[in-house]
Design brief:
Blueprint lengths: L2 H23 L21 H13 L3 H11 L12 H9 L2 H4 L8 H31 L6 H13 L13 H16 L3 H14 L7 H20 L23 H4 L9 E2 L16 H4 L11 E2 L11 E4 L2 H4 L4 H10 L10 H8 L3 H33 L13 H10 L12 H20 L7 H16 L6 H4 L5 H10 L4 H26 L6
Antiparallel strand pairs: 1-3, 2-3
Main location: endoplasmic reticulum
Pathway: Glycolipid biosynthesis; glycosylphosphatidylinositol-anchor biosynthesis
Pfam family, one: Mannosyl_trans2
Length: 530
Amino acid sequence: MNESIVRVSQVFFGWKLVLLSLLYAVPRQYDTSTHLFLTGCDANASWFWRVLAHGIEKLVIWDSVFYANGAERGLIYEHEWAFGRGWSLLIGILTPKSLTEWDESPLKSTYYYGLTGIILAIASHYLATIVLYYLTKLVFSRRRDVERYACVVATLYALSPAGMFLIAGYAEAPFALASFIGLYLRHNQYYVFSGMFFAFSCALRGNGVLWGLLFLYDLANLSIALLENITGMTIPFVSKNKESEELFFSRKEPKGEALRGSNEQNGVEASENGNQGSSFSRTEPKGEALRGSNEQSEPEIREADPGGLGASPQKTVPTNEQSGFIPQKAAKRTRVFNLRELGQGGSESRDTCLQQKEPRAIVFQMVRVIAGGTLIGLMVIGLQLYPYLLFCPGRPWCEKTIPSIFGYVQSEYWNVGFMRYWTPNNIPNFLFGGPTLYLLYRSLVYYRHERVLRPVLLVQLVVLVTALLVYHVQIITRIATCLPAMYWYVGSLLTSTNLTQVKMGKRVVNYFILWTMAHAILFGAFLPPA
């Protein structure tokens, strides 16, 4: 097995044992309302069943109660639809009937549904950690220390500040797993399969619909690329802002990028200082960087700065124009980052068409993007249509222009809405979510020039703004588990050659550890945040 995977696995399971030990050591719960559903063991049950029941009672609280009940009997009441149907349905399907229908069982069937949710959550968190490791290696493949960097990022994710929410049968862990797989497949341009996993994430959590922005982003870029290929013109707005990089399919570089390196003939680029150093950005051959007329030349592929900070010289791979050869893997990665060359994984004839930039190749890619995005749309419609058929007419939300039970229930029963949470009594909840909000913001700033990350950062920006202004802000700590840029950012700090940045990264790790331990104790006592 991969040595990095072994190390990450050791940290993951060791940390889970620490958190479960802290949770189990809490003597009593502040709120005992869940005992209405979890009524304890039979009087004659053995110590094993008593220990198991006690652990489940500690974990099946807050939202996980709704998931366990929904798995056992389905969603009966309107307010239960706030938690969606997918996760509780999955728990119900995977819970063995031999346990739930066991007549002599020392535990009520609800315990087994809760236990299934706990096991699935832990397994999903572990698998999401492994997928993030491989996603990081894919996205940051040009870093010279990519193996170490991916291991650091995966370890950070194992220590996620979401803490007990990734153990207690919440939907966040499987949602993150589906999201990371979708991102991995999309990065390799398997749009239909990517859309399938993103659609599945929508069934787990309502905010999965935001992944549709990735497909809209790609479709917009492909549409512009098609227009450019047909007309032979460059879309003017692409290069209006000279201070920012152009859209990632454009072959031209902004002025600052064109003048960045002075010794490209030797295959070495002097990076800018600070956060402008990029793990993704590419140097162009001299003629191209200076807006030359040779549009057929391939851009160089630059290895990434170990710290992502532009602190050391970079090596480049010569283009086929310079050396007559470009490695197959490097060419493949170029197609991943440049949607103008759209034939990754296709036939040899298709790759030839793509190199010639034929419109039909772009149209073919657009069809795949639309197909993947359509799967997300169909899932969202289905999730709204089913409760509509159950409850309508007769409920206020049925008469809305867009009759969404999810939006109505969140507003009516959980007081979710614009600025509704901005009250003095919720200041502690803002403090709970503050560190995660800050890290999300810092990662947005840090990667703002990375063209390949723009659609992912767009989703992160929407989540950040809505969490701050609309949601119950403290839940951002667990919602952010599906957003990899925060962990990439902290990983870049820890692997930086800049000692100040390394110290900052270590402070973040200390926060992860201390907060997660504190949350295990609070969760065990049935105390906020939830």
